[in-house]
Design a protein that fits this description.
Layout: H1 2-7, E1 11-17, E2 21-27, E3 33-40, E4 52-53, H2 55-73, E5 80-86, E6 106-107
Parallel strand pairs: 1-5
Antiparallel strand pairs: 1-2, 2-3, 4-6
């Protein structure tokens, strides 16, 4: 009975793509963190007051963080029911709709150009 009860409890994921790092956390039914991973990303400063991020690095870090956190829950990965995403809000990146590649680095919300 208890094995069935606990197997039915869902996991919820949270992807936080922030200014200095990306992290992914998995929470159980009691809101305990049961899996997590984070990676810092490079801060690109072409000149004073400008701050950029490599969009492809942000995507790659997001995928890596998800993959590594999911490894921590093993067989329970099938119980993940939802993922919430938070990002940098006003950070701007433009993608080429044909190639799927970024046209330029992401211009970060704290950059003087935003």
């Amino acid at each position: 009975f208890f094995a069935t009860l606990f197997r039915a409890m869902p996991l919820i994921g949270a992807l936080d793509q922030g200014t200095t790092s990306t992290r992914f956390l998995l929470y159980d039914e009691s809101l305990r963190i049961v899996g997590s991973h984070s990676l810092e990303h490079k801060q690109i400063t072409p000149q004073a007051g400008w701050l950029e991020h490599d969009p492809e690095e942000l995507v790659a870090n997001s995928l890596t963080c998800i993959e590594e956190a999911v490894k921590a829950v093993g067989e329970r990965k099938a119980e993940i029911r939802a993922i919430g995403i938070t990002n940098q809000r006003e950070t701007t990146v433009v993608w080429d709709k044909t190639t799927g590649k970024p046209l330029y680095n992401a211009i970060v919300w704290s950059d003087l150009r935003t």
